[in-house]
């Protein structure tokens, strides 16, 4: 197995990719050569779709560059640095404490994701939820940026963040999204109960559906000329407000 410069582990060739899928290896994405087609390849694509793994069609020359001297037979898998967990795994890990979850709405920068995972570990969050599409995945680059936190933070990957918010709300979590035009400043809002924080992507913030699903929106006060903070900084400020309020209510930070 080779490794890309940006930290994705490369699994090349139909048989190795099929075996990785069958063994439930954490696969971030499949890359398939344009025009490639066979019964064996279709079987692999069917397995990928069953697991909700994104498939991208690229030029064969791109696969040649990724796989180097490994015969790729028109398909390459980009494998994750760590296994994902389910949303229920995260909620179960919180018991009997109130769940504290961080949801990321299309965070694309692996360094931002790594920094948020580091904050999640330090602040005692029970897990982080990311999306399968248009988001950074758990690569070696993310692991490096997290300074080891990836080994300790539970990360779930979901197909639809809006539906996941509804699922969390049905299980008693109050969902608070960060938005620059929100009416309430984050420190004026109660964040001490079962809580899910939603942080928007670097370019466009919260998506419309995600924004509408949140129970409440909060903003970070901005006194300077810059209109917003880096996503990982915003996540850290909100996460530690949760820590502060929980300490005020419980006299200590609840165990993770």
From TrEMBL:
Keywords on record: Methyltransferase, Transferase
Superkingdom in the source lineage: Bacteria
Domain RNA 2-O ribose methyltransferase substrate binding intervals: 10-85
Keyword Transferase: yes
InterPro entries: Alpha/beta_knot_MTases, Ribosomal_eL30-like_sf, rRNA_MeTrfase_TrmH, SpoU_MeTrfase, SpoU_subst-bd, tRNA_m1G_MTases_N
GO biological process terms, semicolon-separated: methylation; RNA processing
Pfam families noted in UniProt: SpoU_methylase, SpoU_sub_bind
An annotated Gene Ontology molecular function: RNA binding
Keyword Methyltransferase tagged: yes
GO cellular component annotations of the record: cytosol
Family according to the record: Belongs to the class IV-like SAM-binding methyltransferase superfamily. RNA methyltransferase TrmH family.
PANTHER family to which the protein is assigned, alphabetical: 23S RRNA (GUANOSINE-2'-O-)-METHYLTRANSFERASE RLMB
The name this protein goes by in its record: 23S rRNA (Guanosine2251-2'-O)-methyltransferase
């Amino acid at each position: 197995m080779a490794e890309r410069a940006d930290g994705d582990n490369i699994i090349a060739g139909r048989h190795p990719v099929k075996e990785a899928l069958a063994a439930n290896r954490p696969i971030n994405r499949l890359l398939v050569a344009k025009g490639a087609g066979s019964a064996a390849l279709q079987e692999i694509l069917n397995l990928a779709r069953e697991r909700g793994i994104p498939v991208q069609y690229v030029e064969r020359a791109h696969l040649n560059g990724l796989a180097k001297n490994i015969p790729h037979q028109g398909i390459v898998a980009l494998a994750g640095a760590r296994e994902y967990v389910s949303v229920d795994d995260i909620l179960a890990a919180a018991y009997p404490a109130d769940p504290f979850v961080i949801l990321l709405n299309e965070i694309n920068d692996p360094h931002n994701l790594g920094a948020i995972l580091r904050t999640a570990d330090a602040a005692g969050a029970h897990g982080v939820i990311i999306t399968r599409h248009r988001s950074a995945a758990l690569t070696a680059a993310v692991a490096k940026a997290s300074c080891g936190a990836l080994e300790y933070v539970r990360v779930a990957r979901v197909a639809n963040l809006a539906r996941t918010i509804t699922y969390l709300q049905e299980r008693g979590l109050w969902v608070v999204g960060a938005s620059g035009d929100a009416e309430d400043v984050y420190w004026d809002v109660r964040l001490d109960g079962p809580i899910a924080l939603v942080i928007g992507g670097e370019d466009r913030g919260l998506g419309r559906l995600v924004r509408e699903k949140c129970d409440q929106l909060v903003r970070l006060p901005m006194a300077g000329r810059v209109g917003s903070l880096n996503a990982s900084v915003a996540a850290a400020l909100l996460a530690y407000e949760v820590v502060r309020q929980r300490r005020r209510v419980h006299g200590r930070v609840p165990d993770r």
